[in-house]
Structures are given as C-alpha cells and as structure tokens.
Amino acid sequence: MSSMLRTAACLVGVALSGGCMTDRQNAARIPEALSETTAAPDAPLTQSLFKSDQAVLSNQEIDRILSSRVYAPAKARVAVVRIGGRYPWGRTWWSENVAQIEQQGVDRLLTALRSSGRVDKAVVLPTMLTPAQVTVPYLREAAARVQADLLLVYRTSTQTYQQERLFGGGDVHAYCTVEAVLLDTRSGIVTETAVKTQSFTAPRTSKDLEFEETVSRAEQTAIAKALGQSAEDLAGALRAEPMAPTSQPTARVE
Questions:
Q1: Phi, psi at 92, each rounded to 5°
Q2: Residue 93 in contact with residue 212, Cβ under 8 Å?
Q3: Global pTM value
Q4: C-alpha 72: how far from its chain's center?
Q5: By percentage, how much of the chain surpasses pLDDT 90?
Q6: Which domains does the chain have, with CATH numbers?
Q7: Which of 121, 138, 142, 230 has the greatest number of C-beta atoms within 10 Å?
C-alpha cells in the first residue's frame, strides 16, 4: 500500500473514531439534560405549567410574594373606604332616622379599630378621595394620600322581603352581608379578610313616612351590625399579628 493510501486510511479511521466518540458523548449528555428539565414525579410544582398564567405576574414574582412576610406597623394609621352603591337597586331614600343608623354603623367600625393596640388612628376616607376605578393600585394611592398604613375596604349587599300581617301592615326582613379586607398600603398585600351576614326584622311604625323608609331602616340596621362585627374581627386579627423583627414603626416586607 502506498504511503498516500495509508495516510487516507488513517484519516478515515480517525474520523470514524471521533464520530463514535461524539455520539457516545452526546448519548451520555441526554440523561443529564433530561434530569435538568424534568422534575422528579413526586416533587411538588413550584411554578405554573401554563404560559398564559404569567400574563400578569411571572412565576418568580408570585414566588416572591408567597415567600414574603408582611408586618403591620406597631401603631398603624388606618383609613376606611366603602365601595359599591350605598343603596341597593338604585334606591335613594333618606331620612334622619336612616342616616343616624348608618352613622352608628360607621362609628362602631371606627371604635372597634381604635380599640386595637396596633391602631394609632382610624379615619373614614372622604368620598371625594375615593377613586373612580376601584382597583388595588388606585386604592393604594388614595390611602397614601392620607398617609394611611392600612386601608380597610368594605362592600355591602342586602336582600329584603316583607311578611304581610293578617290585619294589615307587615314586617320587613333584611339580610345583609359585609365583605371587608385589610390592605397593606406599602406592599399591596391583603393581610386579613372578614365576611359577616346579619338578619334583621323591622316592624312598620307610624313614624315611617313611607314603606321605603321601613325597608331602608331595616337594611341600615343589619348593615351596621354586620359592619361592626367585621371590624371587630379585623381588629382582633391585627392585634394578634406578630411584630416586625426590628423596632421600626413602619411595615416591612421580608
């Protein structure tokens, strides 16, 4: 065999052995790649498997939110805001008696909040500062404008019906549900929630100018009771919250 043929045979042999080595190396890397991308069957999932779930928050952002701890201030300033219509079904009935009952509900709410040792100040957010778009970002802005560390947001819904009497007149029965959340202004995290339902019966009296006043009076009485209970639950939960690791008076997110 000539030297040229021997050289060519050597080159072919080297190429074949190199190709086999490359194939063996690639084959060895496949299990490693699979182990990096495929979790163990029993391992818990820590992120969403659907891309559309990350349209608002990424997997990393959700993980940070769930891993963080929000501490309420030692002496928090709380603002209270009501969202939704004040009167259901578009009713606009007003009387001095109904207004007094409504004010009593708000006073009971503020008293419950102020009774907590973690609350330094509790005020009602004026309606002129209530954002037109009731979303968490706008609510946070409204709370920041009055320098409130926490924002108590609540909404009411009411159902009423009348039970007729045999000899005229009738009682109005009201069922009111209050949904309330306590929002941390700095972090945007909802720290506590409360849902309360109250029933109330209001007999029609000679002092009621119209039947609508009887209905409104029953509604506002039920709302006041449910609102007070919600505030008491939130104040108790806030009182039981652990203090921040440091003595700083502001809320912290770890």
A1: -125, 25
A2: yes
A3: 0.70
A4: 15
A5: 26
A6: 69-239 (3.40.50.10610)
A7: 230
